[in-house]
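Look over both lines before class:
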Amino acid sequence: MKVDALLSDLAYRGEASGMRQTYYVFQGPQNYLVLSFSRTKPHSGYFNIVDAEAVEYVYKRFAGEKGLTSKLLRQRCTKPEYINTALEALNILYVLTATHRAQVDNRFHDRELHFNLKS
């Protein structure tokens, strides 16, 4: 992966609130960058790279779903090249939330975040 291609032409797309922190989403030509800041270390943070094709696949395949979790998304995804772990699924859901194609469903009070994807 070429770093200059990944980080060039990034555009801010929005933010998504997780259980404990906020995730900031930037879009590049072929990927999204999901960024969060460390809660314990000042001026530090974390990032995850999300394939734009994976985001589009999930949105088309699961549009209209209610109460979708990252675990369910990983289990129900028929293309393992897009989602290998629950963390990858969660980052896709954060991208969809930041781009206003999903929202967190606050009706559930368990340890997982639940998302409603728009049609």
Q: What stands out?
A: The chain has one domain: 3-117. The chain has a mean pLDDT of 94. The domain at 3-117 is CATH 1.10.10 (Arc Repressor Mutant, subunit A). The two ends are 33 Å apart (CA to CA).
